[in-house]
Specification:
There is one protein chain. The chain has helices spanning about 60-85, 95-105, 115-130, 140-155, 155-160, 170-180, 185-200, 200-215, 240-250, 260-270, 285-295, 310-325, 360-380, 380-385, 400-425, 435-445, 450-455, 535-545, 545-555, and strands spanning about 5-10, 15-20, 25, 85-90, 90, 225, 235, 310, 345-350, 390, 395, 460-465, 470-490, 495-500, 510, 515-530. By secondary structure, it is α+β, with helices and mostly antiparallel strands. The chain has a domain at about 85-240. The longest helix has 25 residues, at about 60-85.
């Protein structure tokens, strides 16, 4: 049971509110725009950051936590990629693994070497030259490596670094190396690599450790590794996903029809139960993160639904948030509660919410951080995680170690879960979660000043390649708008008044909505000739301003001719 007492100075009375019986409804205003400004979703200029949206939040929206998580997740992934490349006490470096494989195969190269061995060495030589200098005395092997590199760079859809990988030369190099090694290998090349791995137990263990880390951080593989059997083997196989399997299943033999929207299909299948997102035992972090988003689409199925009712228009806003953290916008209405006139001023009680009360979404995100911390502790080692900070666009973070921040992020979301449940009236924050709730409340006091939330979050991510159109279907997050949300009681909490000593005046208790702001990401799915990096895309957004103009410019951008 969760209750609180506050003093109404206007009425000389203590008001005790027992939340055990309350049910809160969340709904958004009917008018377009925020606070009656009349801005429309199609013409309003968009804010690139959350703090710039409003000065009247009333609560910390789920998107604040989500963008904090996005900034941390980028930095964590970048730091782990660099750590895996260089090596850690419990994990030999990727570059060292490639050098050792090259060293194992190189002595077999002679003037009469078969083509498969030369192509294998050219692949390894190219991967090594992408991340640093690598000496090779044989001119023919150097030329083969140079040709392999030119062929790879000529396809920017594969070789162009996207997302946080554009932060630094080291990250760009790791991106290209790993993308090169994701390509399906011809049988002879795959077999030579398998033989080299099997001939050295240390190399085989190092290879398996990197596969385990990659698939744990992303998801299970969509193709076979080189030390397995069968066709379509890759050195570092790419990972599977719900959306990838869906596209393959729907369009294995036909092109996507005009107007097909992948995120629409995902939303439909999650809601009707055809797409189950609970992570399987072998699932990676990506499935855990995807699972953490689905409460936005089906809030009525979440544990807090007995105390929280999401109105139909607010559900539309939650769907829009899902689309951005995986879409489209929807704007809705608000109802106004009149204040009774006459007599002493009433005591106005409204839902007290300091976080957007989507408790299960916070809990699932916390569980995803617990999962990845356990994974990284097993594979990379706690010592290595404690020795480096996460990467940021400005360079490595000096504030805390990766291990410390992983613990902090888990506690931030566990605290948000406990606070949301308390404010919905389920129970007071359990004693075991008081430190986490204290951490979260401390962050909430100044969350709009968090440097991670000050960063521009606009980006484009590829979804799938359409071989008929010869274009990539991409999801573009164009910017953000603010949407007002009114929280009102459907079932009112029990209220007991404790008047102060002295003259008494009977006061009426009126239940009124509380006003908050949630985030409406503006997103579009478009076909593009090339997926722009963050810097190019943000420049295009600034140039064209409105969502429709940005989308047209994105679709009409010419393809790249190659990347050096």
């Amino acid at each position: 049971m969760s209750r609180y007492v506050f003093t109404s100075t206007q009425h000389a009375v203590d008001v005790e509110v027992d939340r055990a019986s309350q049910v809160i409804e969340l709904e958004v205003p009917e008018l377009l725009g925020l606070w009656g400004t009349g801005d429309s979703a199609s013409s309003a200029r968009l804010s690139p950051t959350l703090p710039g949206l409003s000065q009247r939040w009333g609560w910390a929206p789920l998107m604040a936590f989500s963008f904090k998580a996005k900034a941390f997740d980028d930095g964590l992934s970048a730091a782990i990629d660099l750590l895996a490349q260089a090596g850690a006490p419990g994990l030999p470096g990727k570059r060292g693994l490639l050098e050792a494989l090259y060293g194992a195969l190189r002595p077999r190269a002679t003037a009469s070497s078969d083509g498969a061995l030369e192509r294998t060495l050219a692949l390894l030589h190219t991967a090594l030259t992408l991340t640093g200098e690598f000496a090779e005395s044989d001119r023919n092997l150097r030329l083969l490596g140079m040709k392999r590199l030119r062929d790879f760079e000529a396809d920017p859809a594969v070789s162009r670094p996207l997302g946080f990988y554009a932060w630094s030369p080291r990250l760009r190099a790791v991106f290209k190396q790993d993308r090169l090694l994701q390509e399906v290998l011809e049988g002879g090349v795959a077999e030579l690599l398998r033989q080299a791995l099997q001939s050295d137990a240390g190399l085989s263990r190092a290879y398996q450790a990197h596969l385990s880390l990659m698939w744990g951080l992303s998801n299970r593989p969509s193709r076979r590794p080189v030390d397995g059997d069968g066709p379509e083997r890759c050195f570092f196989p790419p990972s599977d996903s719900h959306e990838g399997r869906l596209v393959e299943r729907l369009f294995q033999d036909v092109a996507p029809p005009e107007g097909f929207q992948l995120v629409d299909e995902l939303v439909l299948r999650i809601r009707d139960g055809r797409l189950e997102t609970t992570p399987a035992p072998e699932a990676g972090w990506y499935d855990h993160q995807f699972h953490a988003l689905t409460p936005l689409l089906v809030p009525e199925r979440m544990p807090e639904s007995s105390r929280l009712v999401c109105g139909p228009h607010y559900r539309g806003e939650l769907e829009q948030q899902f689309r951005a953290l995986f879409g489209l916008t929807r704007e809705t209405h608000v109802k106004q509660l009149a204040v009774a006139a006459g007599g002493p001023p009433p005591i106005l009680l409204s839902p007290r919410l300091t976080v957007e009360p989507l408790a299960e979404a916070y809990l699932r995100r916390a569980e995803s951080y617990r999962f990845v911390r356990s994974l990284l502790t097993r594979t990379v080692g706690a010592q290595a995680l404690s020795s480096v900070g996460r990467e940021t666009p400005e360079g490595p973070s000096l504030e805390d170690s990766l291990f410390g921040e992983l613990v902090w992020m888990e506690q931030l979301f566990r605290g948000a879960h406990a606070i949301a449940r308390e404010e919905l009236g389920f129970e007071a924050v359990p004693e075991a979660l008081l430190p986490a709730a204290t951490l979260t409340r401390r962050w909430l006091r100044s969350w709009t000043q968090d440097p991670d939330l000050q960063r521009d979050s606009r980006m484009v991510v590829p979804l799938f390649f359409d071989p008929v159109r010869r274009k990539t279907k991409a999801l573009a997050v164009l910017g953000f708008q603010a949407t007002a949300v009114h929280a009102s009681f459907l079932a009112e909490p029990e209220v007991r008044l404790h008047p102060h000593p002295g003259p008494r005046r009977e006061s009426e208790v009126l239940f009124t909505p509380s006003s908050h702001v949630t985030v409406r990401p503006v997103c579009v799915e478009v076909y593009v000739s090339q997926v722009p990096d963050r810097e190019s895309f943000r420049a295009l957004c600034e140039q064209h301003g409105g969502p429709e103009a940005i989308a047209r410019a994105l679709e009409s951008a010419p393809p790249a001719t190659g990347v050096g």
